[in-house]
TrEMBL record:
InterPro entries: UPF0250_YbeD-like, YbeD-like_sf. Gene3D superfamilies: 3.30.70.260. Pfam families: DUF493. This is DUF493 domain-containing protein. It comes from Thalassoglobus polymorphus.
Length: 95
């Protein structure tokens, strides 16, 4: 189990898989943070799948929020993505 994240049982009781699952990742603004977020998620998806995403930079310009909604096949799949995202350089918050 990933500390601070829902466990498989909770995810399975609140979601019907497969489904779109929303990840929100906030990090330091730099040239490649958004790319690192997308690469981390894409590494867990089937080749050729491009999930929808959006970005928003904070008013002060120090942080960027990336919201990405890939289709997840299981609770374990969701936790695998969280596992990759939590290791990102520049990560401030993960929801």
């Amino acid at each position: 189990m990933l500390e601070g994240f829902p466990d498989e049982e909770l995810l399975e009781s609140t979601h019907t898989f497969p489904c779109e699952y929303r990840f929100k990742v906030i990090g330091s603004v730099d040239d490649s943070f958004v790319g690192r977020v997308l690469a981390a998620v894409l590494a867990e998806l089937e080749e050729g799948v491009e999930p929808s995403f959006s970005t928003k930079t904070t008013a002060g310009g120090r942080h960027v929020s990336v919201t990405i909604e890939p289709e997840m096949h299981s609770a374990a799949h969701v936790l695998a993505v969280y596992g990759r995202l939590r290791r990102l350089e520049g990560l401030v918050m993960l929801m």
